[in-house]
Amino acid sequence: IGMELLDSGEYFQVLDELARRDKRVFADLKFFDIPATAAAVIKRLSQWPVSYATIHGWHPAMMEACAAANSSDMRLLAVTVLTSMGRADLAQMGVDREPVDVVVERSLAAQAAGVDGVIASGQEAAPIRAATGSGFSIVCP
């Protein structure tokens, strides 16, 4: 469940109802903030019946803090580069490289930080797997 539902004010009611029905909850909110703030959010979210949660995969210290704050079986997935972004978008952000190269680099950083996996396009799955090896989740929307 994503940001649109969060904006409705009924996010946690829906989350509870899904859990009551024995559904696995994927909290796709792409958290990104200073490490202490992002970690506090993950610590609190880990008290809810959430199976997966997304964080941004751009800041190693933030990812490490989130992984350390996770006190449940919730699996953290890093969003390395939004799937709607191309090289021109990255260049505007000061990253003049191919998206797949950035995705692989950030996937390795997420893995090193203790994050459970990444969100990626299907085109990026093979290069990520080659770099990270088995045991690291790759979720393709």
- Overall radius of gyration: 15 Å
Number of continuous helical runs: 7
Mean pLDDT: 93
Order of helices and strands: HHEHEHEHHEHE
Placed side by side, the strands forming the largest sheet appear as 1-2-3-4-5
Number of strands: 5
| Shape, per Cα inertia axes | globular
Query: In percent terms, what proportion of residues is strand?
Result: 15-25%
| Amino-to-carboxy terminus distance | 13 Å
Described by strand count, sense and barrel closure, the largest sheet is:
5 strands, parallel
Question: What is the helix content?
Answer: 40-55%
Low-confidence stretches: none
- Computed structural class: alpha/beta
Task: Explain briefly what this protein structure is.
Helix content is 49%, strand content 16%. The chain starts with a helix and ends with a strand.
Describe the model.
This protein has 141 residues and is of the alpha/beta class. 49% of the residues lie in helices and 16% in strands. The protein has 7 helices and 5 strands. The chain has helices at residues 3-8, 11-20, 35-45, 60-69, 87-92, 99-113, 122-132, and strands spanning 26-31, 52-56, 75-79, 117-119, 137-139. Strand 2 (52-56), helix 4 and strand 3 (75-79) form a beta-alpha-beta unit. The longest helix is centred in the C-terminal third of the chain and has 15 residues, at 99-113. It is globular and about 45 Å long. The protein starts with a helix and ends with a strand.
Topology:
Elements (H helix, E strand, L loop, with lengths): L2 H6 L2 H10 L5 E6 L3 H11 L6 E5 L3 H10 L5 E5 L7 H6 L6 H15 L3 E3 L2 H11 L4 E3 L2
Parallel strand pairs: 1-2, 2-3, 3-4, 4-5
Helix pairs in contact: 3-4, 4-6, 6-7
